[in-house]
Design a protein that fits this description.
The longest helix has 19 residues. The termini are close together. By secondary structure, this protein is α/β, with parallel strands linked by helices. The strands form 3 sheets. Strands 3-11-10-8-7-6-5-4 form an 8-stranded parallel beta sheet. The chain has a 3-stranded antiparallel beta sheet with strand order 9-13-12, with no helix packed on it. The chain has a two-stranded antiparallel ribbon with strand order 1-2. It has 2 domains: 261 residues, TIM Barrel (Alpha-Beta Barrel), CATH 3.20.20.70; 71 residues, no CATH class. 54% of the residues are buried.
Length: 360
């Protein structure tokens, strides 16, 4: 008899009833509202730290200070709304990465997800705390490099590992030519990451769950990914189209109104390819109508602002507020499949139902 029920996701002493991690989305797309709603639905709710200070009244004047204040505020607000599992996503490329990590730990966050770079020093900030840590990787090689460094330098290992495939939204950890190469498909790299992580779990005498994301859209997708060895999935695009998502209705509706041909790979100022929904703003960038600017924040270490035609942080902030004439929406490859805005609870229930039906 086929087991049609979704098993819970265990990360250290944390247990999420539903093995779904809501992906962290900046600037301001996944804050306390979405994170708490996801945690209440049984998944892992995640607050995105990237650009969070821009939502503060003094964010344009004191970006770094406002970032710490904003992160603390959102964690506390989420804690007031849920007793479920809460995480933060902090990009390694952020210029104040270490300060944001320290703030999250001080606020007692359950788990930190760290990607957009190699979080080789992450253990030094969490040792002695109850906060779990999970690096985000795009290959088994990267997973091995990080976990070996943590073991050798800190006698520490990951509590979970997230692997993101090339169909994810936002910044992608791949070269542009790898995005359509089958050797880099999520299904392929997931198997490699599971194999790379396993020996570290054996040595630590505990399971290190691998969570896979990037193009996971339906309950059937969840089943397929779990059957390949993942313990959970990371989903972001589906959670944008929810009432509790912290973005403007205009941002959410850009998903509903998108067509398959609108999914575009862009060259981000931070030096990575990214997937977004094509709009007039991006057309202006591509046609060369936008010119380099004076960097107001120096928020991302890898941003080549002297050559960049726009500020990625301000563009994403504008989009979050619904001003898509001055910015754009990052989105996963399947965003065009979104047809309506629903409540987070409805979304999770539908995914669980689809998962069960796919096992018949």
């Amino acid at each position: 008899m086929i087991d049609r029920s979704l098993k819970s996701l265990r990360i250290g002493n944390l247990i999420a009833r539903i093995p779904i991690v809501q992906g962290g989305m900046g600037v301001g797309i996944s804050l306390s509202g979405l994170a708490a709603a996801t945690a209440n639905a049984g998944g892992v709710g995640v607050i995105a730290a990237a650009g969070i200070g821009l939502l503060e009244p003094d964010g344009l004047k004191d970006f770094l200070g406002a970032s710490l204040r904003g992160l603390r505020k959102e964690i506390r607000r989420a804690r007031e709304l849920t007793r479920g599992v809460l995480g933060v996503n902090i990009m390694v490329a952020l210029s104040n990465f270490s300060d944001l990590v320290k703030a999250a730990v001080e606020e007692g966050i359950d788990i930190i997800f760290a990607g957009a770079g190699l979080p080789v020093n992450l253990p030094e900030f969490v040792k002695g705390s109850s906060t779990m840590i999970a690096p985000i990787v795009s290959s088994g090689r990267a997973a091995t490099l990080i976990l070996k460094r943590w073991k050798d330098k800190y006698s520490y290992t990951a509590d979970a590992v997230v692997v993101e495939g090339p169909k994810a939204g936002g910044h992608l950890g791949f070269k542009r030519e790898q995005l359509e190469d089958g050797d880099y498909a999520l299904e392929k790299i997931l198997v490699d990451v599971v194999a790379a992580v396993r020996p570290f779990g054996v040595e630590a005498e505990r399971e290190i769950p691998v969570i896979a994301g990037g193009g996971v859209y339906t309950g059937a997708d969840i089943r397929r990914i779990l059957e390949l060895g993942a313990s959970g999935v990371q989903m972001a695009t589906r959670f944008v189209a929810t009432e509790e998502c912290d973005a403007s209705p205009v941002f959410k509706n850009s998903y509903v109104e998108a067509h398959e041909g609108d999914m575009e790979i862009i060259s981000s100022p931070v030096g990575m390819p990214g997937r977004a929904i094509r709009n007039d703003f991006l057309d202006q960038v591509e046609s060369g109508h936008r010119k380099p600017f004076a960097c107001p924040f120096k928020c991302i270490v890898t941003c080549d602002y002297e050559k960049a035609p726009y500020c990625i942080s301000l563009a994403l902030l504008n989009a979050q507020k619904g001003h898509l004439d001055k910015g754009f929406a990052f989105a996963g490859a399947n965003a065009y499949r979104v047809k309506k805005i629903v409540k987070v609870g409805e979304l999770v229930d539908s995914l669980v139902e689809e998962y069960g039906e796919s096992g018949v």
